[in-house]
Amino acid sequence: MGSSSHHNQEDVLKSADSTAWFRSYLHGGTSSLISTLTTIITFPLYKTVFRQQLHSTLVREAVAQLFKEGPVKLFRGVAPPLLMRSLNGTLLFGLQDTFLQQLSLCSMPTLPRNALPALAGLGAGVVEALLFTPFERVQNILQNSRNDSRLPTLRSILLKLASRPLASGYYTAFLPILIRNALGSSLYFGLKGPMSNTLRSYGCSPVAASFTAGVLNSVVISLPLYPLSVLVANMQARVDGGGRGVKTSWQQLWAARQHRLTLLYRGGFLVILRSCVTWGITTAIYDQLERHSR
């Protein structure tokens, strides 16, 4: 009788764990899906920044380029970030929660408990880079107007990349993406909880605290990691430019920016602003869903 009761308790615990596991993926996907509205609204802004990253142009010059190309081409390349954004939240929040649960079960006395969310975020960021580098590669090719005549359709781009080795095809610039995503995810999940709790202790409502934590987190992450995004954009934008190594690509980029940080960070303010809005909304929605489910 006691053995049967013990087995029943184990079954209940396993069921609860699987429900919590599924819930984190569902809430991550829902929050990201809702925040994709900001992706659509701010896509022209993102495309303006991409032109600045690629050609080191001023805002007015990038806007003039897009205006000249017309409204039809303005949203060329929006499909990959929309798909990536929806899947990204599902996997990022879900995997981080899964890794966190596994790490919590491990006995690691030398590792502080409050470091576990950041470590789980690091693991989620690595998986994210592995899965989404091809999406980013396709997106950057689509957004580069110099590819329009040679590769006019998404299918033509996919076929071209498939014909190349992975390192110079779909996985061009994998190393800087891996570093950026792993560090970014680790910082996000490591700082999100403490920031939100601190803001709530000062009287902020739970939703306001989550939104502000998402915004502040985005600033902390985006500012130092922005040069990696510029490097990735320049490495991935050309289909035939995937053979150069990271070191060579960085040297060429730094020389093209006249060895000046101000030119390297051109367009950075717009990226950080867009990221703040997106991650503020995503964090607020995710935390609210988690609170309601508990």
From TrEMBL:
<feature type="repeat" description="Solcar">
    <location>
        <begin position="23"/>
        <end position="102"/>
    </location>
</feature>
<dbReference type="InterPro" id="IPR018108">
    <property type="entry name" value="MCP_transmembrane"/>
</dbReference>
<keyword id="KW-0813">Transport</keyword>
<keyword id="KW-0472">Membrane</keyword>
<dbReference type="GO" id="GO:0005743">
    <property type="term" value="C:mitochondrial inner membrane"/>
</dbReference>
<comment type="similarity">
    <text>Belongs to the mitochondrial carrier (TC 2.A.29) family.</text>
</comment>
<feature type="repeat" description="Solcar">
    <location>
        <begin position="112"/>
        <end position="198"/>
    </location>
</feature>
<feature type="transmembrane region" description="Helical">
    <location>
        <begin position="203"/>
        <end position="226"/>
    </location>
</feature>
<keyword id="KW-0677">Repeat</keyword>
<feature type="transmembrane region" description="Helical">
    <location>
        <begin position="263"/>
        <end position="286"/>
    </location>
</feature>
<keyword id="KW-1133">Transmembrane helix</keyword>
<dbReference type="InterPro" id="IPR052465">
    <property type="entry name" value="Mito_NAD+_Carrier"/>
</dbReference>
<keyword id="KW-0496">Mitochondrion</keyword>
<dbReference type="Pfam" id="PF00153">
    <property type="entry name" value="Mito_carr"/>
</dbReference>
<protein>
    <recommendedName>
        <fullName>Solute carrier family 25 member 53</fullName>
    </recommendedName>
</protein>
<dbReference type="InterPro" id="IPR023395">
    <property type="entry name" value="MCP_dom_sf"/>
</dbReference>
<keyword id="KW-0999">Mitochondrion inner membrane</keyword>
<keyword id="KW-0812">Transmembrane</keyword>
<feature type="transmembrane region" description="Helical">
    <location>
        <begin position="25"/>
        <end position="46"/>
    </location>
</feature>
<dbReference type="GO" id="GO:0051724">
    <property type="term" value="F:NAD transmembrane transporter activity"/>
</dbReference>
<feature type="repeat" description="Solcar">
    <location>
        <begin position="205"/>
        <end position="292"/>
    </location>
</feature>
<feature type="transmembrane region" description="Helical">
    <location>
        <begin position="170"/>
        <end position="191"/>
    </location>
</feature>
